[in-house]
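User: Please predict the structure of the protein below. I'd like the answer in structure-token form so I can feed it into my own downstream comparison script.

Assistant: Understood. Taking the following sequence of 560 residues as input:
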Amino acid sequence: MTRWRERFGVLLLLLIGMGLAMWAASTQAGTYDEVTFLGVGRYLWHTGDFDIQHARFHPPLMYYVNSLFLELGPGRWDLGRDASGHFTYFAGRGYLYHSGQSPDAVLLLARYPFILLFVLLGSVLYRWGKEVHGPGGALLSLALYVFSPTVLAHASIAGNDFLLTTLYTLTLFALWQATRRGGIGRWALVGVLWGGTLLTKATGMVLWALIPALVMWSWWLARKQAWPRPLALKRILVETAGAGVLAVVTVMAGYGFHGLYAFSPQYRPHRWVDRLVGWMGPGVRDAVYALIERPIPGYRYVTMLLRQFGHVTQGHEAFLLGHRSRTGWWYFFPVAMSVKTPVGTLLLWLGGLGRSGWMAWRSSGRERWQTWGWIGWWGLPILFIAGPAMWGRANMGVRLILPLYPFLFLFAGALTSSRAPLKRGRWVVWLLVGWTAVSVLLQAPRYLSYVNELWGGPEAGWRYVGDSNYDWGQSLKELREYLEEEGIQEIYLAYFGGELPEMRGIRYRPLPCHPVRGVVVISTTYLQGLYLDNPECYAWLRAYKPVKRLGHTLWVFRIR
């Protein structure tokens, strides 16, 4: 492959991906979580107040990123407050409806940074794949990335899942470069990106185990002379520890070095202090109190982690294959991925994993260890994401395991790797890529509700998956357009989403749990019985046939 053809192919794929992401960003309404996130970063910048509930549930970096372009636009930074001055959970509604701009413009401004990150991650993915497989394998990995509906769905909204995926991958690629080439600058970059990953979502904590594991794996490969340079164990451990310290400092900086009096009686009683030193007299007791009652930078991060761990272990309402569960299923993510991933991509993933193993088996000596080297470097990040997710009870959607997707794309590149070129059947690989592209384009720009052909396509998807796997409130704009076209003045509505339908010009009455007459619109999530006090509240609607499915997720009934 000539250099200009390679560059043209990469540029074309990235432009196509950017266009597909922009298409979704400009057409879908605010998703449920997104409306709770918008503009929170502006509030944090201007006040330094990290005691709001948003910072208690997630680290702040995602809030900063979605506020980058919002900060440049008009509107006050405190639009997330209610009449009493309290910063509300759905803070984004203030920015959507009261900033002086249209809600669509606000959403685009919040989503732009994530689309730019989509291009950045694609470029890094190509670079990493090229180092291992050559340009042919790297182009295959990039093509699957660009035509991944799950990646496109979350790269086109202002959320933390794609940001985590980007920083997780960038951190490990920076670590790959640091272990292979060395240099203080590269290790400093590892530390900053590591801290950025921790600042994005609690899932980033897996890096505390994954990074040492990959460093030790690199050291072992160096002993087998299968790494580009020798690695001294003591030195590389010191460099890793230094990067870890920089990651901690980065986390503290993300919170503005905001300190919380973690051991103050305001937060927890000092019974244990009284038991230890109370008998020694009030003077000693007061001295101990004075020593420990100091603000601890980053302690808000610790409390956030504890809350997230409790959420994962306690469970979250989920839907799979027609069943609801609060504690989830261990097989939730494999099944959901088989529903949400194009068939061509699934086959290429399996083929890439199989061919990677075959390449390791057929090689010998140093070449075998080199092959096992990149298999370990890409396999461990997958296991460290998939393992905790399958063990946990929060089956909210495949977005929770999105960080493993780039590494599956990299494995698929083994099918066209220059290390072991296919002697025949290469055309089958690109035929599957074409099938993937067509499948995604036919359902574009509704990537959130994408369901592959084996499972019946998006019209049948509601039978198998729900929530952020299918219906996250993204079809509200299509409802408004439909009502205008049909001249419908008022409806009964049960809408699952973060936006306010009335602010989109939709007149409605809340849909009761008993039969009514007129035009009825209901979100798939509620029709599945999720997030309702009475899961069978709207079961009576199942006896009727919808006249329309808007964005596949909003069901329209005319009941006489």
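That's the full token string. The radius of gyration is 25 Å.
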